[in-house]
Amino acid sequence: MTIADSPTQSAKLDSKVPGGPMEDRWTNYKFDLKLVNPANRRKFDVIIVGTGLAGGSAAATLAEMGYNVKAFCIHDSPRRAHSIAAQGGINAAKNYKGDGDSVHRLFYDTVKGGDYRSRESNVHRLAEVSVDIIDQCVAQGVPFAREYGGLLDNRSFGGAQVSRTFYARGQTGQQLLLGAYGAMNRQIHAGKIEMHTRQEMVDLVVVNGVARGIITRNLKTGEYERHSAHTVLMCTGGYGNAFYLSTNAKNSNVTAAWRAHKRGAYFANPCYTQIHPTCIPRSGDYQSKLTLMSESLRNDGRVWVPLTKGDTRKATEIPEAERDYYLERKYPSFGNLVPRDVASRNAKTVCDEGRGVGPTGEAVYLDFADAIKRDGRSTIEARYGNLFEMYERITGDNPYEMPMRIYPAVHYTMGGLWVDYNLESTIPGLFVLGEANFSDHGANRLGASALMQGLADGYFVIPATIASHLAGRKLEEVTKDHPAFKEAEASARKRADDLMAIKGTRSVESMHRELGNLVWNYCGMERTAEGLKEGKRKIADLRSQFWTDVRVIGDQNTINQDLEKAGRVADFMEFAEVMMHDALVRDESCGGHFRAEHQTEEGEAKRDDEHFSHVTAWEFNGPDAVPTEHREQLTFEEVKLTTRSYK
Ligand SMILES: Cc1cc2nc3c(=O)[nH]c(=O)nc-3n(C[C@H](O)[C@H](O)[C@H](O)COP(=O)(O)OP(=O)(O)OC[C@H]3O[C@@H](n4cnc5c(N)ncnc54)[C@H](O)[C@@H]3O)c2cc1C
């Protein structure tokens, strides 16, 4: 049977996964890849959209190699990318603790953690290069925490029984980003990176089927610009803000990915959203942001709720015998360090039972009393001081004396643009890196593995695989006067004109909030077929209301944050319908995608490997049309498909 004949494998989705022994695949593949010789690299222009950890690391490395890089971000500096918010750490299979870690174990944990919905070959490569990332970052001067003996320290994250997470207090993302930013700056100074800040990619330019440029809107002047290149790398982060309330930076959005999708890049697994178990609970209807309390806290914090419903005593007044440390009770092997999807669902269950704490009843305790008694306050302060301080500033409670109150919140998106082993999308010449691609995490990302993936993509994978396009295809000369640039610019301008012309009655913010509520209620921690159908209908109505009744204030030809936001919310509206559709079509539970109809007697996610062991990638057919479904069948050669158990 050929690929095209196969009932589950779309011929459009050739993953290009190499054969041979798993541990040799990446090495052999790199050897077989074409090369661009050093003298020829300066003939190639590379556009990189997004300069968080994925884009920043790619820009620095490709420029260092000799390519001409043009980098873009919506922020006023690469240093302000959402990556800077990452707190807890980055995984690597260094086995510094000598506790049995290995490349194979990291690979295995990640495939299992993702509930067997990721590509084995990609995950193995990720585990392999994880060790190089740490060396690279140390060489850049990233101040990872060290032990007394001088070795880099490690802690544990969910879904692992070893300590493999490297960290810089609770500011790992910031320190890693400073490393990438320093490396970028060297190349900006050398003239190899042209850095364009406060520029928003508003369209992708595809010439004869190949990505050859972008249209940007200058966010300071409102002017539209055309930029051409031999290839485009999209590193624009995740779409968690479709839910309005999330732990993501307020500026995180789906716009660049969505507009590339409309030009032909397939969107994979949009229903896989990660709900992080340890966030500060929402406190009211007018909140605009949620705050993460790093997963690292679960190394020492114990999660519990009162044994009985409606217990309103202060946490410190509830005796041990009347507490339910439900994660330790249900999952004795992994305890408080079960993966995020499992911890989140359990928090929801105990709150739904009426055992939640705090004013809304939507919270559980994360308690450090035992750890402080065991290790002393100063040790706990050295590990988590800045997180405790942040918690106290937001809630007014002192976590050294009173347990933190936490509740799950939208945090990370495993779905994204579909990419093959080269990180190339279904549009030749368009590569997608970091959280923006559907990546290596399957249906649930394990903690500390997003930074690993973003930096693997940028420092190690794309520098090799980009040659598959640049040396492997004949690329014609394309100038910015090409009709494809004119058409893309005109359509971007028209979209903004249309938004300005509506002059309705509702603010962009209020419509985003309403959208977020719908997505959370119908496609949040628990989904049902009925709810998803209703949610889809309601989102379609809201979208048509948006295009008739939104009011965008200000002027197009200048700085206008309302217009910027309106464009992004309009994209979230279209995207959210596909997300719901994907969640409806995936008629199983897996990882972060929990369909209430499919659960075990104990309330765990019940996969359907026979029918859903595939990646679903959607092809855009217009905002009002049902997208076309494509499938990439997943095969498992190394890891045996079993029911995930953390007991
Ligand atoms: C609070 C928090 C803590 C976290 N902690 C951890 C952790 O400890 N460990 C871990 O592994 N992961 C963690 N994560 C996840 C991790 O931080 C992200 O997945 C990762 O940083 C994403 O990096 P990125 O480079 O893909 O995207 P981002 O850092 O989001 O960068 C996106 C870039 O794209 C640009 N951009 C966006 N749209 C456009 C556009 N249209 N035009 C031009 N530019 C655009 C932005 O300006 C930015 O430069 C955390 C996430 C959160 C929310």
Summarize the helices and strands and which ones pair or pack.
Blueprint: H1 25-32, H2 38-41, E1 45-49, H3 53-65, E2 68-72, E3 90-91, H4 103-113, H5 120-140, E4 165-166, H6 172-189, E5 193-196, E6 199-207, E7 210-218, E8 224-228, E9 231-234, H7 255-262, E10 267-268, E11 273-279, E12 302-306, E13 323-324, H8 326-330, H9 340-355, E14 364-367, H10 369-375, H11 377-395, E15 404-413, E16 416-417, E17 430-432, H12 450-470, H13 483-502, E18 506-507, H14 508-523, H15 529-549, E19 550-551, H16 561-585, H17 609-612, E20 614-619, E21 628-633
Helix pairs in contact: 3-6, 3-12, 4-5, 5-12, 10-11, 14-15, 14-16, 15-16
Flavin-adenine dinucleotide (FAD) binds at residues 49-55, 72-75, 81-83, 85-90, 172-173, 200-201, 235-237, 247-248, 252-253, 255-256, 292, 411-412, 434-436, 448-451, 454.
Domain FAD-dependent oxidoreductase 2 FAD-binding: 45-451
EC number: 1.3.5.1
Cofactor: FAD
